[in-house]
Structure formats: structure tokens, C-alpha cells
């Protein structure tokens, strides 16, 4: 190794005390919190629909709703853990979710499969709208986190397409 290369390595070596992790700004934290509460709400509403759907194609829709529930739950966990990795504090308490979600409320009681398809796809698109609305701001601050948003959008939109196909007529 040449002397010049050794000198270059010394100049570029950093001190351990100078190294800090990337920390989310207040804006990034707020954007991820919006995503988190909508994913938690989608998970809960999907389960409500799963328990109370009745009618034609019940079993198929019942199973599809479980897929949506699993995807929303896993995505909420991914977002919450990403927030923690960035030293942000996620708030998934039920009162916080109920007070801050943008997902429309879900009706109680038994619901026909056709109605559940409409309700749950609307709510899935509400959650993906939130993901899309914060995407550019998240990407500007942390492209790694925006990659997670891409994966969640892809997953939820695919599930919404599959669920809404239950009602499609040719």
C-alpha cells in the first residue's frame, strides 16, 4: 500500500463518538404515525368483516379477509418497528387509532358478501391513499422507509383487486 493511500485512509476514518444513527424528523414521524393508525384500523375492520360476513361466496371472502388482515397487521408492525429504528415512538393505542385514523368507520352486525366487498375495498383504498399521500415527503427524508411504503402499497392494492373481483360482472 502506498503512503498516499495510507494517509487517505487515516483522513477518512471517523471517530466512534462522531457516529450517530439517522433519526426521524417530526414530519417523518407524523407521516409514519398516520400510516400506522390506518393500517391498524384496516386490520381491525378486516377482522370485523371476517367475523360477520354472510352470503354467497362466504368461504372465499372469509379467507380473503384473513389475508388482508394478516397483510395489514404485518405492515403495521413493519412501520412501527421502522419508527423505533429511527428513534420515533409509534402510538398504536386503540384510543389513538380511533381518534386519528382516516379510514371510514365499519358498520356493526352481519353483512352480505357483496356489501362487505365494497366496504373493505373502500377501506383498503383509504389506507393506500394515506400511504401515497405521505410517500413523497417520506422519500425526500428517508428513501429506505419509502421503499417499505412501496411494498405495502403493492400488497394492499393487490389484495383489494382480488377482493373486489368477487363483485365484478362481465
Descriptive labels:
elongated, 2 strands, two-stranded parallel ribbon, mainly alpha, 72% helix, 170 residues
What does it look like?
The protein is an all-alpha fold and 170 residues long. The chain has six helices and two strands. α2 packs antiparallel against α5. The relative contact order is 0.17.
Helix coverage percent: over 70%
Amount of beta strand: under 5%
Spatial order of strands in the largest sheet: 1-2
Report the C-alpha radius of gyration, rounded.
21 Å
Oligomer: single chain
Number of strands: 2
Count of helical stretches: 6
Q: What characteristic shape results from the CA principal axes?
A: elongated
* Structural class computed from helices and strand pairing: mainly alpha
Describe the secondary structure blueprint for this structure.
Elements: H1 3-12, H2 26-52, E1 53-54, H3 58-85, H4 94-100, E2 111-112, H5 113-141, H6 143-164
Parallel strand pairs: 1-2
Helix pairs in contact: 2-3, 2-4, 2-5, 3-6, 5-6
Amino acid at each position: 500500500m502506498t503512503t498516499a493511500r495510507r494517509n487517505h485512509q487515516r483522513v477518512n476514518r471517523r471517530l466512534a463518538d462522531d457516529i450517530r444513527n439517522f433519526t426521524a424528523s417530526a414530519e417523518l414521524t407524523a407521516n409514519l404515525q398516520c400510516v400506522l393508525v390506518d393500517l391498524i384500523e384496516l386490520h381491525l375492520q378486516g377482522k370485523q368483516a371476517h367475523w360477520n360476513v354472510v352470503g354467497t361466496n362466504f368461504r372465499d371472502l372469509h379467507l380473503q379477509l384473513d389475508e388482508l388482515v394478516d397483510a395489514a397487521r404485518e405492515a403495521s408492525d413493519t412501520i412501527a418497528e421502522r419508527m423505533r429504528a429511527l428513534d420515533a415512538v409509534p402510538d398504536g393505542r386503540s384510543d389513538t387509532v380511533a381518534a386519528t385514523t382516516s379510514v371510514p368507520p365499519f358498520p356493526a352486525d352481519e353483512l352480505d358478501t357483496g356489501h362487505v366487498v365494497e366496504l373493505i375495498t373502500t377501506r383498503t383504498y383509504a389506507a393506500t391513499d394515506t400511504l401515497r399521500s405521505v410517500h413523497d415527503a417520506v422519500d425526500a427524508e428517508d428513501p429506505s422507509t419509502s421503499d417499505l411504503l412501496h411494498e405495502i402499497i403493492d400488497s394492499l392494492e393487490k389484495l383489494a383487486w382480488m377482493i373486489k373481483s368477487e363483485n365484478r360482472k362481465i
